Amino acid sequence: MSGPVVEVGAALPPLTLHVTRETLVRYAGASGDFNPIHFSDHAATDLGLPGVIAHGMLTMGLAVRAVTDWAGPGARLVSYGVRFTRPVPVPDDGVGAELLVAATVTAVDAETVTVTLDATCDGEKVLGAARVVLAGGPA
Question: Looking at the domain assignment, is residue 20 inside a domain?
Answer without folding.
Answer: no
